[in-house]
Amino acid sequence: MKKELIDRYGRKLDYLRLSVTDRCNFRCYYCMPEEGMDFVQRKELLSYEELDYLTGVFVRLGVRKIRITGGEPFVRNGIMDFITTLAKNQGLREITLTSNGSITDSQIQQLYQLGIRKINISLDALDKQRFFEITRRDKFDEVFQCILTLLKKGFSVKLNCVVDGKKNIADIVPFVQLTENHPLSVRFLEEMPFNGTGKFEVPEWNHLALYDYIAAHFPTIQKVLDEKNSTSVNYQIPGYQGTFGIIPAFSRTFCGTCNRIRLSATGELRTCLYGPPVANLRDVLRSGASEESLVSEILDAVAKKEKDGFKAEELNAKTPKKSMSFLGG
């Protein structure tokens, strides 16, 4: 019988979020502190050969979609060679990427030639000063130009905006207006407790507050069909080219249909972003374990996946939460 990643609630996990690095050229406040980040040593990272082997194992277990994340994936040397290798795996239905917009024109061209068409860009402000305050980097023009280049080339682009009531509320309306003349999807996310500082306040701007705010400014707002296993609840303003969605990332209303599994750049396997690592596949692999043993480790971890993010968080309650750059989102 074919082995598949199915948890105890009958959910089939066919989507792997794969972090290739914990490093990033930005310092977004909600992801990591401005200084003092203790990045992992190169020897602790999964090599590209190990990543290639492990992704092959996951595909043989039924994974059909892989999202490359970080940190910022494009700061790791050799990333395009790895993506090229990954794209040759015939068992994969889709490869997508999440970036902060640090993608060169040459890399965009290579991605297009590989058949990759979907890219998420993290962008939390359309105002240059607020962008700088959030990212601690003066890179807005480069990021926005990257977005325009991707759209012109024919990529499906989603913009992920983490909403903070003290920093970027003034950007919400401009983001929705951006969808009038651009065929992209903006997704507003509740802030999550993965900033690497150990300090976090429950967001007042939850998914309900976000919807009410947007609806007050755009009374013709219409619901659109959500994709299967979507984490966002999606909307459109009639006549606009693009759409926008709201992701209850902290409220976690979408856990019941979760089909995700996560592998960090150091080999930590997580069945939930909020939960603890359930195995370290790097250590298993480097111990000389057979593929059969590796598969057994993965299947055992998946079988114990918690019902939702709140249950998973209870298992992690006494452990300081790592930065989002390490977890990979």
Automatic annotation (TrEMBL):
It comes from the Bacteria. Keywords: 4Fe-4S, GTP-binding, Iron, Iron-sulfur, Lyase, Metal-binding, Molybdenum cofactor biosynthesis, Nucleotide-binding, S-adenosyl-L-methionine. Gene3D superfamilies: Aldolase class I (3.20.20.70). Its cofactor is [4Fe-4S] cluster. Its EC number is 4.1.99.22. Residues 8-228 form the Radical SAM core domain. SUPFAM superfamilies: Radical SAM enzymes. This is GTP 3',8-cyclase. It comes from Cyclobacterium lianum.
